[in-house]
Description:
Layout: H1 12-18, H2 22-25, H3 37-54, E1 56-65, E2 71-81, E3 90-97, H4 99-156, H5 162-189, H6 191-195, E4 199-202, H7 203-213, H8 215-221, E5 224-227, E6 232-235, H9 237-253, E7 261-269, E8 272-278
Parallel strand pairs: 5-7
Antiparallel strand pairs: 1-2, 2-3, 4-6, 7-8
Amino acid sequence: TNSHGDITQVNSTLLKWLGHEKDQVVGKLSFRDLLSVGAKIYFETHLMPLMKLQGGFTEVQVEMKGLKGRKIPVLLSAIGVDGGNPDSSHYHFTIGDITQRKLYEKELLKARKDAESKTERLREINTDLERFAHTASHDLQAPLRTIVGMLSLVRKKGLVTQESKKYFDLIDKNARRMRMMVLDLLDYSRIDSETDKLKAVDLNDVCRQAIEALGETVEESGAEFQVDQLPEVTGSEIQLSRLFQNLFSNALKYRSEQKPMIRVESKVDGDFLRHSCKR
């Protein structure tokens, strides 16, 4: 453009983008005429003063307008060329079409909003599940306590015959096992609230608690445990206890007819502590 902003030269690429013919633009339109309303205001209030003060600008995002109201997002750069007088001075504009990039940005924004929406929905579902788990486990404890209490009362009153003893033992065993499952469910419902409360945990205590929680199963299987001196770690005591309990439970459940021998070891592996449960 000349120093007044009138277009003096234009290449075929820009004409194709805008849908104009060369004779419709050169000598007839100013650069402002190619901009959308908002971009024109911004150009006149910000970019023109910048060009006069600094001689140009680099990669400013504006909108150009094509035929039939079509808007084209572009990156606009400009540099002024001083010819010594207003008639020979002019500006060179470099324009890059970023339509595809804007589409990508729009898709990314939509994908992020969708992901945030789904994350929020999953958070709500997780909260509902935790609330249900807590309520269900809490409510189930009462009838289980009644069953276990009644069985104990029946035994004390000597109402269990030799013939029915195995059935009462089976009922008692499964009632206690179910009570343990309910307590596990209650602990699980508290995991998220406990996760942030990380503290120093002695794994020897955790291991001992896990063995005690499986007391009846350990006694029935005749299992023996060999536990090395374990270190202290930073973590959630509940989750670590459940971890060891599940490992021991699986070791006792999936075994041969031989009496199980379970060994717990700990060793340093680089920046980590590696714990193993071997049978």
